[in-house]
Amino acid sequence: MRFVVALTGASGQVYGFRIVKELSKIGEVYTVVSRTAKRIAKLEGLDVEMLRDVSTRFYEENEITAPISSGSFKHDGMVIAPCSVKTASSIAYGITDNLITRSADVTLKEKRKLILLIRETPLHLGHLKTLTRLAEMGAVIMPPVPAFYIKPKTIDDLIDHTVCRVLDLLGLEVECKRWEGLNEV
Fold first, then answer.
1. DSSP string, 168-182
2. Which of 43, 94, 101, 183 could pair with 90 in a Cys bridge, judged by C-beta atoms 3.0 to 4.6 Å apart?
3. Residue 133, marked binder
């Protein structure tokens, strides 16, 4: 299996790091990191070199001629985690001026799965219209919203649950805590 994962300039870099790590256990991972994502990852205590180490290929956002920029590059889904509103807006309106937005654009045009972990709150009407446009184009909009029914003990529990849901959306069989309904006492 082949996956494309991009990290853009928003807080929550840990989501992208964990997704790359988990997908690398399953198949090939082609990772793209924006300049701003690198800066924020460092601020959040994460080392981008780890992504280089576990990725099949690692790209800078300006490597616009990379194989993943073409619809002929077959893959099983793309995840942008975290996804900034700037990146989401660029994708929604066909602005493909870097490898991340170009890869997302061809993912949509080829009718492949595109999952966006949007990291912005609150959302104004312009954001909502952009996200609606993306959903109408076939993207999956997935803000990393915590699930408290899993009874998390740590922040890692919350992150892991979101990562599990992303892997579910990619069609992968993964083990994680799931909603089991209300058990009245």
1. HHTT-----------
2. 101
3. no
